[in-house]
Write a structure and sequence with these properties.
globular; 45% helix; two-stranded antiparallel ribbon; 2 strands; 4 helices; 128 residues; alpha+beta
Length: 128
């Protein structure tokens, strides 16, 4: 029985180590505290932390634009620009992974692109 418990705890620990998440609370114009965003990325924690940062930054900017107030003002200062996808393409997980593995993207850039894709914001790069 003890081996089973140890195995189960190990699986739970390993699974939780692969998830990176974050939440952003804000105060609305009526003074009520609300959950603005709850994001989670699963995969590579060293990259996913940047995906969380990107998603929370976009969320924070959207909340403030609508009149909400956040305490994490550093999220408003984050540059959420991502490298352009190759001409005629939009970022996909596979394309981003290829560029990351070939060292064309940093961990931060890759994380930002992953979040951008997951948030369905990826657009075709219409190189002119």
């Amino acid at each position: 029985m003890n081996i089973r418990r140890i195995f189960l705890l190990s699986v739970i620990f390993i699974s939780s180590a692969c998830t990176t998440s974050g939440q952003l609370y804000y105060v609305d114009i009526e003074g009520n505290e609300k959950l603005g965003c709850d994001v989670e990325f699963v995969g590579m924690p060293s990259v996913d932390k940047f995906a969380v940062e990107y998603a929370l930054s976009l969320c924070a900017k959207s909340i403030v634009k609508k009149g909400g107030v956040i305490q994490e003002s550093h999220l408003l200062k984050i540059d959420t620009m991502i490298p352009a996808a190759p001409c005629g393409e939009a970022w996909t997980h596979e394309l981003a992974k290829q560029h990351f593995q070939s060292k064309s993207l940093s961990k931060k850039e890759y994380g930002y692109i992953v979040a951008n894709i997951d948030l369905e914001l990826a657009e075709i790069n219409k190189c002119t």
